[in-house]
Amino acid sequence: MTKLHRHILLGIHATLATLWIYQGLVPKILVQAPDELRIWALQGVTADHAVILMQMSGCAEIIFGLLFFILRKSLCLHALNLLAMLLLSGLIVWLDPSYFLQAFNPLVMNLAMATLSMIAIALIQDAKNTDLNR
C-alpha cells in the first residue's frame, strides 16, 4: 500500500469514526433529539423506554465508531458499516419515508458513509493483493 493510500484510508477511518461517535453521542446521549425519540415511538416504544434504548444505541454507535480507529485493515468492519447503512435506511423508509424528503436526511449521510466504506474495502483489498504478489 502506498503512502498516499495509507493516508486516504486513515482519513476514511477518521471520518467514519467521527460520524459514528458524533451520531451516538450528540443526538442520542447529550441532546436526546426529538427525531431520535420519534423513531423509537414509531416502533411502539414508550417514552421512558425510548430514552433508555436511544442512549444504549448511542453507546453502541460510539463503540462502533471507535472500532474504526482500532481495526484499520478490517474488511469485516466496513462490510458491517455497509450493512448498517442499508438496514438503518430501510428502517427509516419503513417507519416514515418522509424523512428522506428533508434537507438533512438519512440518504445523504448513509450514502456518503457507505461510499467511504466501499473505497476503504477497495484500498484494503488492493493492499492485500499487492502483498500477495510480492
UniProtKB/TrEMBL annotation:
Keywords: Membrane, Transmembrane, Transmembrane helix. InterPro entries: DoxX-like. It holds the Pfam family DoxX_3. The keyword Zinc does not apply. The keyword Membrane applies. It comes from the Bacteria. The chain crosses the membrane at residues 7-30, 50-71, 78-95, 107-124. This is DoxX-like family protein. It comes from Acinetobacter cumulans.
